Each structure stands twice: as C-alpha cells, then as structure tokens.
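Re: the multi-chain job from yesterday

Posting the exact lines I submitted so nobody has to dig through the queue logs.
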Amino acid sequence: MSLISVDRVTYGYSRQPALKDISVDFHEGEIVSLLGPNGSGKTTLLKLLLGLFRPQEGRVLFEGRPVCDIPPKQLSKRIAYVPQFHRLSFGFRVLDVVLMGRMPHKTFFFRFCKDDEQAALEALERLSIAHLKDRPYTEISGGERQLTLVARALAQGADIFIMDEPVNGLDYGNQIRLLSRITDLAYHGYTFIKTTHFPDHALWFSDRVVMLKDGKVIADGDASQMVNRLNLYNLYNTHIAVMDLDGGGHICVPEGVTGRSGHCAANERYNVQGLRA
Amino acid sequence: MTIPVLFVILCLTALISLSVGRYPVSVGDLVRFISLQVSGHPVMDDRQCLLLENILFDIRLPRVAAAILIGAGLSVSGAVFQSMFMNPLVSPGLLGVLAGASFGASLGMIVAKSWLVVQLSALSFGLIAVLAALAISAISRGDQLLMLILGGIISGALFTSLLSVVKYLADPYEQLPAITYWLMGGLSAIDRTTVLAVCGPVSIGILILFMLSGYLNVLSMGDEEARLLGVNVRVLRFLFIFLATVISALTVVMGGIIGWVGLLIPHIARMLVGPDNRILLASTALIGATYLLIADNIARLMFSVEIPIGILTSLVGIPFFALVLRNARKGWNR
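And the result, structure tokens for all chains:
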C-alpha cells in the first residue's frame, strides 16, 4: 500500500486550476523529486500533501485517511515540512529552532523538558551540526540553515519529509552535501518528497521523478528512465541531452550551448569524459 | 540570571518611587511603616502613621502600582504583537486598540460626567476597534496576517476620525481641554479603586501570556510553518490578540495614551536577553515597569508643574528608538 496517495485531485482558485485531475502515489523510503517549470503546480501539490489545501475534487490519502481530516498535531508527528530557505525576523538560537520540532509532542501549556532538548541535540548531531546549537539562526550560512530545518523535522519524529526546493539559494557544495544527507537518511527508512529545478539532482539523488506541467503529470517513474531528452524538452521547452558517464551515472547537458571557448559540451563526448579526469 | 536582577532593580525603583515626592518619606520611615503594617507593633506615633498611611496608600501606592502595570502591560503586548506579526517595528496599537480607546474615553467625557463611564467606554471601544480590524481581515481573502494589519490601519483611521468628530463637538472651554490632556497620558488622576479593579485582569493576562510565550516563537516562523508544527494557529492568534488588546485597553483606562513604551521596551529587552520569547516576555515586563516608574518620577518631580507622562515617554522614546535601531540588528535581523 502506498504511504500517501493523490487520487484524481483537482485544485485551483479560478477557472485555470493549478492541478488538473492528477494521481500520484508515494511509497515508504523513497526519494521523490517533483520537476516542473515555474507555475506548474509543484508547490500546490506539496501543500495538498501537507493538508494545507483541501482538494476541490479527488482525495489526498495518508495511510488511507484523507489528509485534511487528520488533526494538524497528529499529522505533524508523521509528516514534516522543510520550508524553502527563509529569512526570519528574529535570530533564535539554532537549538531553539530545532526545539520547535518538539511542539507536536507537547500539551497546551508546555515547557520543553530535558528529553526534548536531548531529542533536539541528537537531531543536530545526526546532521553533524551540533556545534552550531547556540548560534543565532539568522547568522549561520544558508546550507547550515537548511540542515537546521532538517534537524527540526528529525526532532519532530516525522518519517516523511516534504521539502520545497531545498537547495534554493545554496552554493554548489552545500547543495551536494545537503542532498547526500538526504540520501543517507532515506537509507534509514525516511521518505522524502521534494521539488527541484535541477534535473541533475533528480537523477543523482532520487529514486523516482514526477514531472508536472501545466497542472498535469506528464511523467512518473524511475529517475534514470524518466529524465530523458524528450521529457526534459516537454517540461522546459529546451533541448537538453542526458549523457552517460563512464562507469554509470548520467548528466544533463544543454544542447547547442557553446562555452566561451567554442566547445559545444553536448556534442563532444570526450568533454564529458574529461569531467572525470 | 537576568530576570532576578531585573526584578530586584524593579523592586528598588518601586521603593524609591514610594519615597520621593512633594512630601519625601525616607526609606527608613518607609521600612518602619511597612513593618508596622505587617507585624502590628507600633513603632511610630499615630499622627505620623496616619499621614504616611494617607500619602502611601491613597496617593503613591496606587500610582506606583499603575505605573508598574501600565509599563509591564504595554511592553508585553508590544513584544507579543512584534513576534506574532513577525515585525519588530510593530506596537500594541497596531490593530486600533489605542485609537478605539481614545475615541471611547473622549465620547464618555462629553456624554457623561461619571469617570466610571469614561473608563468603561474607553475599554469597550478599544475592544470594538480590534474586533472591527478582525472583521475586516475575515472578509478579505489572502494572507491573513497582512489583512489583519490592513484591517488595523483601517479601524485605527476610522476611530481617529471619529475622535476628531467628538473633539469638534466638545465644549471648547471644559471638555476639549480635558480630552486633550487625557490623550497626552498621565497618572496624576489615578485612584485606588481603578487600580484595584484593573490590576487583577492585567496581571492575569500577563501571566497567561507568559505561559503561552513558547508559541510566540513558533508563530513568528509564519502561519504555515506553525500549523505544520502542529500548532493551532487560529486559536492561539486569537488568544494572543485578545489578551494583548484587553491589557492595552486597560492601560489606557488607567493612564490614557502613553506612547512608545510598547515599541521601545521590547527592543531593549531583546538586546539584553535575545529574541526567545520564553525569556523575553518576562524581561520586557520588568524593564517596562521600571522604565515607566522612572518616567513617572521624572514627570512629577522634574518641574514645578507635573508634565503628562505620555509627552515624556514620546520625547525620550523617539530619539532613543533611533539610537536603538542602529544596534537592534543583533536581536532580530541579520
């Protein structure tokens, strides 16, 4: 049985719905990348999965129950949201931000106890950022902030992480490090559903790809099969070659783009091999 | 560690405020008088005792208590609004409570002679103004927080114009000056009955806000995030707005419009203890109370005629705020 299933869902404000009659299933332990151009409905889909929006038609089921009918507190023990790189008005300590993940486990008049602090510290240690615990959240780097939010989701005790463009605004090194962390966590049974603008990341770091265009699913399946020239063209209206790397793996290279030196990367196979040297 | 220190400072300031005035009471007399009240042993003669009783119980204690309640109430309400609206430049008047209460009090002054009516009218219209802001936000679609702020602006503007109407209709020889002075804010008219009636609700309100302060941290991450952390955003936001509004309206009932406290003091507290609301609210209450006590002492002692404390807090608050802004980044932004 699938963990979350989106069943013939239509959602949107006006005559132009953001999502039209879409069906997708998500399974345990998967990393799923949602690919799609701007305005294709990726974020809307995430919000439906989180129970923030109620579908106008169709159902979103979490373990067989409509996600909108599950009380937020109960839902947040299972599903965590890792928001996009955001700016906060107040510089809370990193530990305090992670502690917020303990909220679903507290009663109305609450105080965080030793156990909560322990859970928060463990989450930070798991992502190797325990040394940041007393730093203001607003003063750490973008990558560290994103890791802090992942730690908060871990402290929450959730096993499904929904991430909206997790690498947005991160430098290349931090992007790769964050995605590697996610892959590590997925080995331990955590499920990740994330949106991304990088087909490469979908290829390298996810099991499955769901491609959305104009509110419809145009492809859904194994990442290495679905990220291909035709699908990418349909998605982005741009010719993108998916090239094999020696020793397995793939890489997306835009076609017809010549570097300033005059080489056209996608046409010169040795160039791609050269990357490995 | 900071909170006990701030508490001691507040207590000392309160003691000094009790002792200074037109008729200075030495701290020694003060202590003797208090021990007399507590133990019942006569340590001073009856005439002096009666005099002290009169000065302290009827005049100074209500005033000191009012200053503490107003300072703490406005500062805590300000801190709550700043966190909830994710904006450190917000003041307790954001949703129109001060405009509503001003209108209510002025209306009370021209229609009734009774001070009680003025106070009740101030309280009611403070609440009505915020309800109007909530109603406006409820009928608008889109970002609820933004709509609330806009609703507050509309409601505040409405009650400010209604205040002008009342002022225009008021008798220019008696009522208009009374309204004008009252709007400047002051504690000279404070009486024991008012303080006794108001101190319960204000203190309980502040205590409940202390107990809920952990939610403010989460709410300042934004609505969606708070909800996805399992927080019932609607209920909590309503509770916070309700408590902060009642507290602010009751401070107006006691002392009229005393500006800048609710904006300035949370900043100072944040620079001292950081933005974590679980510590911030208590610190801001203590600092606010101390600040208003000192301001009131200056207002009644500095010149031969007492100056309205609202003028003082504005004149001190504005330049101080400009200075604080330069260093405030440490507390809230990057």
